[in-house]
Design goal:
The longest helix is centred in the last third of the chain and has 22 residues, at 293-314. The chain is of the alpha/beta class. The chain is built from 12 helices and 10 strands. It is globular. The chain has a 5-stranded mixed sheet with strand order 2-1-3-10-4, sandwiched between helices. The protein has a 5-stranded mixed sheet with strand order 7-6-8-5-9.
Length: 319
């Protein structure tokens, strides 16, 4: 009996098409859904990694931005997609760690509904203000916030931009006023125009604004100063132990065939070895260790536990 006939008899009509897809993957364009708007760290990373996958496989990689509901809209689009490896989710701290604590009745389970195929870590976020802002340093910012409760306004567009100011408010005994945005671009525009006073933006998305002088960093949320900005103090230098870092990565629906999952993991790891990717990752303050599938799951699980604690300390109630 030929192999195809045996597979159809043993596994049913669906068994052969899945095996064929796995053997040939990728044989057509791959779509990476980014659940946030253009210009953020997820968008930048998806395009950077996607470009390398495209070069390696000779198949187009399309980045599809689907912002909204703190990443839930884009995440659900991948959860319900065909589990064949051709629809990939750019996962973030929001989608796969913080939303579990921030959202009541979350419509997906990051652990059960997805298989993580790649992880690259963030080095934290900068507290950004306009170049003309009156605060010369972070202690001056905190002192002014104490003197004017609720007068300093921060914008946020995901968990990584909302949790740090809430966390800081609890530790510092200050009151900051938050304004939600659908996408990073809108929040950035309002900061630059002076509609809001500050933003916490991760090191990847911050890079262009630092380079062009549109924003000024007062502090960074990692425990030690960043090699990219050694003159920028950590929040922990004023409030010992303060640390909020995050992660980015890629995932597919959990029913995706294992050999397709392994192939994707290999393609992402190959992309992370490319000199230009490493140069830009260094520039963005991202770490890029080669990560096995087991390590990917362990990394995201650990981040979920950390962000559960962050949101608890910050006192943010699920909505």
């Amino acid at each position: 009996m030929r192999r195809r006939e045996f597979l159809l008899l043993a596994g049913g009509a669906a068994a052969w098409p899945l095996a064929a897809r796995a053997d040939q993957y990728p044989s057509r364009p791959i779509k990476i859904i980014v659940p946030f708007g253009p210009g953020g760290s997820g968008d930048i990373s998806a395009r950077m990694i996607g470009k390398e996958i495209e070069a390696k496989t000779k198949q187009a990689v399309i980045v599809d931005n689907r912002p909204g509901a703190n990443g839930i809209i884009g995440t659900m689009a991948v959860k319900t997609a065909e589990p064949d490896g051709y629809t990939v989710l750019l996962i973030t701290t929001s989608t796969h760690a913080a939303n579990v604590s921030l959202v009541k009745n979350l419509s997906y389970d990051p652990a059960k509904d997805f298989t993580v195929v790649g992880v690259f870590k963030s080095s934290g976020s900068y507290l950004m203000v306009r170049p003309q802002a009156p605060w010369k340093d972070f202690p001056a910012f905190v002192a002014d916030a104490k003197a004017q409760p609720g007068k300093i306004i921060f914008g946020y567009f995901n968990a990584s931009s909302r949790t740090p100011p809430e966390y800081l408010s609890r530790l510092a005994g200050i009151e900051l006023q938050g304004v939600p945005y659908r996408a990073i671009a809108n929040a950035v525009a309002d900061l630059i125009s002076g509609e809001i006073h500050c933003l916490f933006i991760d090191t990847t998305a911050s890079s262009q604004y630092l380079q062009n002088g549109q924003m000024r960093p007062l502090a960074i949320t990692r425990l030690t100063r960043s090699p990219q900005t050694p003159d920028v103090p950590t929040v922990a230098e004023t409030f010992p132990g303060f640390q909020l870092t995050g992660f980015l990565g890629m995932a597919v629906p959990s029913a995706t065939p294992r050999d397709v999952v392994e192939r994707l993991n290999g393609l992402i790891n190959d992309a992370l070895t490319m000199p230009e990717v490493r140069r830009r990752m260094d520039e963005f303050g991202l770490s890029y260790d080669i990560t096995s599938l087991a390590d990917c799951e362990a990394e995201v699980r650990a981040e979920r536990e950390r962000w559960t604690e962050y949101t608890r300390v910050a006192g943010i109630q699920p909505e």
